[in-house]
Amino acid sequence: MSEAVLTIQSHTGPYCARFDEDGLERLDADVPAGAHFIIDAKVADLYRPRMAHILASASVLLIEAVEPAKSLERFPAYVEHLVAQGLRRDHVLIAIGGGIIQDITCFLSATMLRGVPWRFYPTTLLAQCDSCIGSKSSINCGAAKNILGTFTPPREVVISTRFLDTLDLRDLRSGIGEMLKVHAIAGPEVFADFAARYDSMLAGRPEMIKAIRRALEIKQGYIEGDEFDQGPRLVFNLGHSFGHAMEAATDFAIPHGIAVSIGLDMANWMSSALKIGTEAHWRAGHGVLKKNYRGFETTPIPLDRFLAALAKDKKNKGAGSVTLILPDAQGRIFRDTYPADAAFQALCARYLTEVRAS
Ligand SMILES: NC(=O)c1ccc[n+]([C@@H]2O[C@H](COP(=O)([O-])OP(=O)(O)OC[C@H]3O[C@@H](n4cnc5c(N)ncnc54)[C@H](O)[C@@H]3O)[C@@H](O)[C@H]2O)c1
Ligand SMILES: [Zn+2]
């Protein structure tokens, strides 16, 4: 049974994010004509019996969900596959996987034949609670992460939390990292309430579904008001300037949402260190954030590589400065530009080597 539906407004019209625990089985029982599946190879292995018709259908592309798979350099093979399968504009791409499969499918949807519709069955918590709505595709090129992209909403998103049964704990925590971000944006009280439900959410599916829905509802308010990331939506990059730099500096040894959790903690601490926010705000979040990034408190993050990656952040306005999304003294999230001087670099070093594990 469908449990709930969110209707998201986008520049191409409304689309639904539907909670349906049997969504995969329903799709397998009724594979649409003209469907081209793009599926996480690990998910196909794990769920083979439940997607037998899908996997036996005419056009199936299995992709190992590793970060290089969403590099521009890999796209000729995807395009050739879809061309060989006779892709037409009245066909549909159906993505089954996490954020990597989403980004690949969304980018192909935007660019092939100047537009082919796509639908999404997110299989990771990160994709279910955050990335599945919001229209963005983000593709890597060379060493530049998420440097190419489009705003291409799906026609439909179908969320089944049964996929989470097989997700590694680190990938679950990666998704929770994005939820922590979304709730931090909604304000300190909302964040504290979410933090208090951390354990029950991991222990029980109804709590998890509620949390996913709440995270999507908060995000919905921002993406409907600013789908193209021109103003209010930019706060969704909270934790991401630092987080992306950590991912890049470690060759993606830290999963995205875990890096975002560390990035949130670093943003709270940096705000206090720069006398913009308060130490109390950093302390209030530190417990749950550290709990979420445990196992990565001491992962080496080379400072030179971290700073080099931070300097390349898309939000920056010029050399020698860095644009950050930080909490103010009331915990409200805002964006500003700061000098990336020796003092700032020393604070980064202190956070990475001492504060992160404290
Ligand atoms: N476009 C956007 O709006 C957006 C937003 C956030 C993140 N992203 C991108 O998403 C990517 C991260 O995505 P992600 O964390 O969802 O995961 P992922 O796609 O990187 O997958 C993580 C791991 O989980 C495995 N997996 C997927 N579903 C599974 C399941 N049900 N059971 C067991 N294993 C499963 C995958 O094979 C992979 O090993 C990054 O590249 C990030 O940049 C995009
Ligand atoms: Zn993210």
User: SSE order in H/E notation?
Assistant: EEHEHHEHEHEHEEEHHHHHHHHEEH
How would you name the CATH homologous superfamily of the largest domain?
A: Dehydroquinate synthase-like - alpha domain
Global structural class: alpha/beta
Could you say which overall geometry the principal axes of the C-alpha atoms support? globular
Bound molecules: nicotinamide-adenine-dinucleotide, zinc ion
According to CATH, the fold-level topology of the largest domain is: Dehydroquinate synthase-like, alpha domain
Describe this structure in words.
It is a single chain. With 358 residues, the chain is α/β, with parallel strands linked by helices. The protein has 2 domains: 2-166, 3-Layer(aba) Sandwich (Rossmann fold), CATH 3.40.50; 189-355, Dehydroquinate synthase-like - alpha domain (Dehydroquinate synthase-like, alpha domain), CATH 1.20.1090. Helix content is 46%, strand content 19%. The chain has 15 helices and 11 strands. The strands form 3 sheets. A 7-stranded mixed sheet has the order 1-2-9-6-5-3-4. The longest helix has 21 residues, at 205-225. The radius of gyration is 20 Å and the shape is globular. The mean pLDDT is 95. Zinc ion is lined by residues 178, 240, 256, 260.
Brief descriptors of the model:
11 strands, 2 domains, globular, 7-stranded mixed beta sheet, 358 residues, binds nicotinamide-adenine-dinucleotide, 15 helices, alpha/beta, Dehydroquinate synthase-like, alpha domain, binds zinc ion, Rossmann fold
